[in-house]
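Molybdenum cofactor synthesis 2, Boletus reticuloceps. Tokens?
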Amino acid sequence: MAYPSTSTAAREDWEGGTCVLTYEALDVDAIVRSVRNDSAGATAIFIGTTRNSFKGKVVTCLEYQAYSKLAIKTMVQILEDARKAVSQSTHQPLAHTVPAHISSTIHHRLGTVPVGEPSMVIAVSSPHRKEAFAACERILEDVKEKAQIWKREYYEGAREEEAEWKANNC
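Tokens:
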């Protein structure tokens, strides 16, 4: 009996942002444009790419899998938590209506990601750089720690069964 894959493309849009799991190549420019806002003076971006080595081994590609239904919910919660945690800038008067964190997005690749290609893009817009950087870093660390996404590293000269599955935070 064949079981359906739990690693499927998924997308969740909500008021403060978007979370995407996809088998498609990530369009960094489009992702950054998706958080643009005229109230934002800063956009912080993290682009995680497949590197060509790990602990002296030559990496040929990474393969990502996820428990997508749960991972997308976790990613939305991470964005919501970051939005609540980033405090108002000291540059803004207390009565100012623009939030410290305007919009954010996480896009994560599934499947095979060749060396040099993005596997994850996070973009955060904010009125000021300090809050944009703080939110972006928090989102990154939380995705790597909490999202139900795993990677498998393939090494040059190694058989497929020697590829290593790892938590996404390695």
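The chain is about 25% helix and 35% strand.
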